């Protein structure tokens, strides 16, 4: 099935944000409004079952919106991994356990609708650039900060994919060659230093080594492995020195990443999205502090960017859904 060349002015498109644990989907209208948002658990037991959960997510979103499948024009999907949009294939997804899965042809057969696929962070960047805080800006960097870390850039109004669609995988660039092991096999990756699970692991290690902290009260009698990044945030909010130190260090690594991306790509803004992009969070404050330090240290960075460089995502979780839908509706 070929993607339709012309899109009706009242076209409805289903946008799907496929995650390793949850699939979020919604019906997106031409204004970028999301209707019938649903979230279901991803069945990753086999690629076929994962594809079936995606198809189920699409049908549930359509049903929740109160429209029929016949009223839907197409389906756009953001996939966590390396994706070939032209072939409709996901070459590799660690989160889904996929290797060379023919996503588009399977779903088009199942749903009888044209489908388009892209990397999930690329889709979210597209969503932000078309409907979010960078609407109307031609150059921006989107930083997804959650259980993983990745960035994607819009350059001169277009999503910059690079040779493999992976341009912006700074989460797996090493910021400390002697740092902790990353799930990718590398050492000291930005993701292993500053993503949610890394913050929790770091706090667990510090507590194991006998450091005193409010975190001990928060965790109570539970095993240390139950400690989450949310606990580190809560302790930092209450003024705990250890939690504050952990977040400040992570913020400095992230700020250095933002500084390098800004110097290389000269974006108008850098948008922070993903699960940890929460207004007033101590991690976001630490990133601001780190970027402020780079602005003070680097006259050229200061000339190029100001304190307004950083923005929080305005779309939050809808960035992935609207961006996936925009794969169909925009000339990205
Ligand atoms: Zn890595």
Automatic annotation (TrEMBL):
Signal peptide: none annotated. It holds the Pfam family ROK. InterPro entries: ATPase_NBD, ROK. Belongs to the ROK (NagC/XylR) family. This is Glucokinase. It comes from Ktedonospora formicarum. The lineage of its organism: Bacteria, Bacillati, Chloroflexota, Ktedonobacteria, Ktedonobacterales.
